[in-house]
Amino acid sequence: MPKIAIIGAFSGKSIGDEAILDSTCLHLQEVFPEDLQIILPTKYAAYMSQHFPVKAIQSRIGMLSPQAVGAALSADAVLFTQQNFFHRNIFKPWYNQMSAYRLIVQLAPKRGIKVITYNSGVGPLDTPLSRSIARIILNKCDWCTFRDPDSYELAKEIGVNTKDMTVTADPALSQPSCPDERAAEIINESGLDPTKDCIAWNIAHDMGPKGPVECPFTLDEFASLMTQGIKRLQHSTGCQILLAPTTADDLALSRQVAQACELETVGHIPWKISPKEYVGVVKNCGLLVGMRLHSLIMTCAAHTPVFAVPYHPKVESFMDFIGIPEMKILLKDMTSEALAEKVGNAWACREETRQKITPAIKTLAEKAKSSAYKLKETLSTT
After folding, report:
1. CATH topology for 3-167?
2. Are 297 and 19 contacting, i.e. CB atoms less than 8 angstroms apart?
3. Torsion sign (Cα): 331, 332, 337, 343
4. Which of these, 141, 328, 116, 340, lies nearest to 231 by C-alpha position?
5. Are 296 and 321 in contact (CB under 8 A)?
6. E strands of the chain, at which residues?
């Protein structure tokens, strides 16, 4: 029975991270129809074991704990997933996984264990130390698949010379949805009518001088701008607006904006729903306005059109990757009037956008799944 360890930051606080895990597990189960054990070291073992097809190993101090490293070294292959190659908090192993990755790539090959960077993102790596550590880790992997071209190019830029590395896609692009009936129930619970036109709206709280991109607003100013933009849009289109956060960190801001709108046609999804339920809800919407990357990715999995407000460079890169770079508004250009106008235009051409992105998303979803086939081939030759 193959044993595969997935090493990442899965906390139960991000629907997007859970979509990566859920879709990765589904791909592995499809490609390995025989018995398969997926091992997941995590601080939240009980929750993860309950909601995903994994053997969760309790690890209270992050991926450097003896339990986490031991779990990795008990497997046939170790997968580095998500976007865990970055420079922030590099000496905090409960936040940044690279120190654990560095240890695993030193120990695993001595035991004949394959180490793979699997549909992963890379960056930002803005310090010499983070670049050096990432280069060492990636060069020691058996092979690497990156979820986007920017990650691939950054890996090459920092000196990664692994012969076998390719661009695939984010596994959450193939995240399945819940039944339509369940999605309708969630929208009803949000106070909206699932039979009427609806725009989903995802907000990130990472604003201000410490945010990932330059932002001319304070958090309160940004909340006010979003509120006024939603009101203008609702007035011009008549659409319902459904606030749909993907992380626990964004809940307070998202609820603040929903309440400030003071409109019966503005609702907020219950927290917390599953990745399948999130995809089901946005499938019922005509458009998603998204800041978090995985709000956009899970919406694309439903083949629902998206419009981005990039809070991070990876969001803008994703819009380029799926072929609709024009479907965005940058923070530096944003006013409530411009936001409402651009989203209104996106709503008007949503069917054209759907037709444009659907073939691309199907192709990318298959590319993400190809990593599972590559893993099976790798293990079959050992």
Report:
1. Rossmann fold (3.40.50)
2. yes
3. negative
4. 340
5. no
6. 3-7, 37-42, 55-58, 77-80, 114-120, 143-146, 165-167, 198-201, 240-243, 266-268, 287-290, 306-308
Whether residue 13 contacts residue 247, with contact meaning beta carbons closer than 8 Å, is answered with: yes
Q: Which CATH class is domain 180-362?
A: alpha beta
pLDDT tens by residue, the chain, 382 residues:
899 999 988 888 899 999 999 999 999 999 997 789 999 999 899 999 999 999 999 987 778 888 999 999 999 999 999 988 998 888 887 788 899 999 999 999 999 999 999 999 999 999 999 999 999 999 999 999 999 999 999 999 999 998 899 999 999 999 999 999 999 999 999 999 999 999 999 999 876 555 566 678 888 999 999 999 999 999 999 999 999 999 999 999 999 999 999 999 999 999 989 999 999 999 999 999 999 999 999 999 999 999 999 988 899 999 999 999 999 999 989 999 999 999 999 999 999 999 999 999 999 999 999 999 999 999 998 6
The CATH 3.40.50.2000 domain(s) of the chain lie at 3-167, 180-362
Give the DSSP H/E element, type plus range, for residue 321: helix 313-321
Rounded CA separation 160/169 (Å): 19
Complete edge-to-edge strand list for the sheet that includes strand 306-308: 266-268, 240-243, 198-201, 287-290, 306-308
Q: How far is CA 308 from the centre of its chain?
A: 14
In this structure, the strands spanning 55-58 and 77-80 are unpaired
- As separate numbers, helices (DSSP H) first and strands (DSSP E) second, the chain gives 14, 12
